[in-house]
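Hi L., both proteins are below.
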Amino acid sequence: MKTVFFDIDTQIDFMYPAGALYVPGAERIVPAVSELNRRAPLVISTMCAHAEDDPEFKIYPHHCVVCTAGQLKPAATLLDKSDAARQVILEKQELDCFSNPRLSTLLAELGTQRAVVYGVVTEICVRFAAFGLLKRGLRVEVVKGAVQALDEGAARTMFSDFQAAGGHLISLGELLESAR
């Protein structure tokens, strides 16, 4: 089964307290994201890439503006140069990673059957990714120890809706154990 890991929006503006749109507690998942990315057969890392006047800023404060430090991924989430071919960086200007038309084409070219999803924000961009992948007929697993929410109640609802739609929740430990 062709598996692709999805590292959703783990960018400095979201992951650390100094970030423009910090997700409280997100820094705690960086080691898990790093471990998952290193073990991934292939990882697609989505990244917000906003212009200064992006329409999304009518909803959310400025964040992840192209060419700013906040738009970058933490070094720990990037594969080193010898493994860089296993990490695809996919920029997006909208919450939904499928707003980048390259993603659907890439999934088809890769023959993807299974997606392992993690990152931020559980009830927003992780939700869009997980449900978008389900909609495309893939087996989708969200790694519970490698996501962070802004609203825990909304995250619980997302997990419930996701499972009802056929998605699977998996712990980091279970995923790593199954990969052995």
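That was the first. Here is the second:
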Amino acid sequence: MGNDAFYLPMGGGRFESTGATAGPWSEAMQHGGPPAALLAHVMARHDPVPGLRAARIAVDVLGPIPIAPVSVVAATIRPGRRIQLVGAEMSAGGRVVARASLWRLATLSGGLALLKGTSPPDPPPPFPETGAWAPPFPGGYHGGYLAAVEGRPVSERPAAATVWLRQRVPLVAGEEPSPLERTLIVADSGSGISPALSPADYLFMNVELSVTLHRDPVGEWICLVARTVIGASGTGLADTALFDTGGSIGCATQTLFVTTTQS
């Protein structure tokens, strides 16, 4: 199975998952970014309404997603000409592995009259012309997704990091990724670039990903300014500000399940 794309189209809403989707925890299980983007890919083609844009997507991961053929089915949950909610479900091996919901909102023509004193969107972090991100997963699988995404770090410290990321391969073979798809492929890495716990001693993975975009990103590179907080009971939260080279585009959050590697 080649790694020239994350997925190969099989027709009828079915896709072959390639080795490029493999996450750092296991070369047999997918990283969360590609499935989130594939759900958005299918939803974008379902019941489009002129003048509406993808504003917010939430993805719930219902279990490990194997590197195997997956099926994605979309449906309209809330129809509307100005506000619309679309949902999608991903299945693999006869079980549902992920669900997503996407809010589409109407766009306004012309300029907006913001209140005087409203702060402008944050400018982007500096973009390094060189450098490479080294994933902090000793003993993990560094092929698959980690090899299919390129990173340039701006700053890295425990539980906080700023890293520019871009995908090296298409989401679906033969198709150009949309701005939302590009964002989702890397946004799921917020917790991965800002670990608050040692990956040698703890397993921490997100059970969901929520992304809100106040505008569509431009270009291939997306910057993640991520911070991870782990509560005393072990529940974690990764909070990530998202940027393109023009400035702020939105934010992402991830709820983290935490356990020890000996569990």
